[in-house]
Amino acid sequence: MKQGKEKKYFAELGEHKGHLDSDSGAFAVPTNAWVNMQNARVGSTDKGVIATLESIGGTLRVDTFGSSGFIRLGSVADDANNRILYALYDTSVGASHCIVAYYKDTGQTYTVTFNGQVDQLPLLGGGLVFNKNYPIDMWVVGNLLYFTDNYSDPRRINIDAGIKLNNPTFSTSVAAYTSPINQKVTTIIRYAPQRPPSLTYQTIPSRTNFLREFSGQFAYRNHFRDGETSVFGTPSVMVNYRFGTNPSQTNYDLTNRITVTLAWQNGYDIEQDVQVFELAVRYDNQPGYFIIKRWDKANAADLAEINVYNAGGSLVFYFYNDKTGSAVSGAASVLPFHSVPLLSATGSTGLDRNFLGGNTLGYDTPKTTSLTGTAILSAPYGIGSQFFKSWSTYQLGIRFRDRYKRASGVVTDPLHSIVTIPDRGDYNNSTGFYNLIQATLSNTNALVEIPDWAYYYDVLITKNLRTRFFAQWAMRNTDVQYVIKNVNGTYTYKITL
């Protein structure tokens, strides 16, 4: 390393002698005193001289980066790759904050990313969101730079992918990022697909029907090129069993294919750091998912379908329920979100894990809601009809989630969020059936009711607050029946009395 020139000053104590004076105002600091110092020392030196203040030999300042307008907020040595990473705050007009990599063997500095390449952070604005009052703690794992500042989400970026974007001739096997880089690509918490699939029911001639006994939901999740996996996104609507519509089986549902579609919308791309996009199904009310389709960018055909989707098209999968998917672990199936703090002051690695400290966890729950519920009358009932127990009570609540599905608590209004299903009165078999509860939210006080960080919301409902188990009435012995499944797949209905 280049040797720095030593400068010596008299440092004996006494009047007009050298000493630390960090208390006095600038106008009152005496001769040969100092308020602060960097890369300097007092006392005995490497030359054996005493009573001096001198610069420390063997140091070389390398973080000027061609401009005096940068403030270094953080740095970390990546010894495995012989480089130092710096997070720089730009005080000039335009605020081109950046992360750079200084290579010690060549003395060359490469830009990893800068403010104008990162977009879409709704609350704090776009870019890298550096704040000169918040120092940045940085650490490196493999080719990933992790950094956090207690001001915005803990973040990470692929160093070589960023360098390759800004320096196309840089030698690396890592594919370059493309600009702009969506803000969620740079967060430690991994984002799930943000929209559920839509379902279309179809009948395909001359094909065996495996859907008549299927009930379940579909959802997507992401696998990322740096090895992480997201939680599952919002599931689809529930597909109910498709039994016959009358006891004679003369008119039953012929659906034998479900077309599962994800149609593109602006802002909902499959992002550049997603390597594999997965579709999964879960059966009945069971929580476990099974992977039934993977779109892998390493496969040319799959990549072409993803590119069509990102260009404004759709991803389509035909589900016949004729194959068993790959089972997902129970823990991964039910995980609602990754427990990454909202803010962290520091971080490090240990035991093959990332550790974050000085954390802010969870959101405050809104204190008020305009949520109300209304029971809706259904058409006359038939076999397979579903409706609420008469003379029962339910309570509604609402919960908000951020774009990574981290949630607030549930807010409810004990006066207005209670729904009572009316008594059926004359107990006839054609009226008084309520099959829906309609939830309503007013937009009048939205700024108070909806947190500024909210991206999703869930409307929740309790179980029946009046009773859990009951036997509803039956007018005649033919109104309550049980069913026997025959060998040929048909059903025989038997009266209970």
What report would you give on this structure?
There is one protein chain. With 497 residues, the chain is mainly beta. The protein has four helices and 30 strands. The protein has helices at residues 159-166, 300-310, 330-334, 446-449, and strands at residues 8-10, 19-20, 33-34, 40-43, 52-55, 70-78, 83-90, 98-103, 108-114, 118-119, 137-141, 144-148, 155-158, 181-182, 198-202, 216-224, 257-263, 274-283, 290-296, 314-319, 326-327, 346-350, 353-357, 372-377, 392-401, 418-421, 434-440, 456-461, 481-485, 491-495. Strands 6-7-8-9 form a four-stranded antiparallel β-sheet. Strands 16-18-19-21 form a four-stranded antiparallel β-sheet. A hairpin with a 6-residue loop joins β12 and β13 (155-158). 24% of the residues are buried. Residues 1-7 have low confidence and may be disordered.
Task: Provide the descriptors you would attach to this structure in a database record.
about 500 residues, 4-stranded antiparallel beta sheet, 30 strands, 4 helices, elongated, about 35% strand, mainly beta
Give a brief rundown of this model.
With 497 residues, the chain is mainly beta.
